[in-house]
């Protein structure tokens, strides 16, 4: 349905191509041991995963800083689990998490064949709210950096998705118009509604089993992209 109109495809990275939850779990499996934290990984993640999503929402909405995000998402877990950890250990774990996260590079199923397929006919780009130094390492270490022309991150833009400026910046950097551009991402608010407000077409990768909606088409496996492009 997009074959006749689309020239450029913009992807989100985390939760869309790069399997954030799986790689994050493997990272915590390592650093909990390194810091001698005697909390089971499953117990830790049960609290951390929703807390992290909530703090990222606050970060997108400019209600907390990057430093507050990194500290509070860990502090919240230890407080809820009634596990005493000093601020110095939390701060070091925050650093170690960022340092180790891009060493684990599982991609969502069908990421590579879909990128190979698309790259022969379209220009591909990234728009991410993630931190620049971490996102660049993820792209490089996972072996998908070569597919992307422009990589736009929120630190570069000075704003975060769904702010229209980051989507307009991406168009300007790519030298393309919104009406010939497609955004593919997992977050309805940040990726889909944000891009559509600027005039992009959009395709929602439903990585979180969200309910159906009428904003745009939805897919549950990246291989489904081939039926649209």
Automatic annotation (TrEMBL):
It comes from the Bacteria. InterPro entries: HAD-like_sf (IPR036412), HAD-SF_hydro_IA (IPR006439), HAD-SF_hydro_IA_YjjG/PynA (IPR011951), HAD_sf (IPR023214), PGP-like_dom2 (IPR023198), Pyrimidine_5'-ntase_YjjG (IPR052550). GO terms for molecular function: 5'-nucleotidase activity. This is Noncanonical pyrimidine nucleotidase, YjjG family.
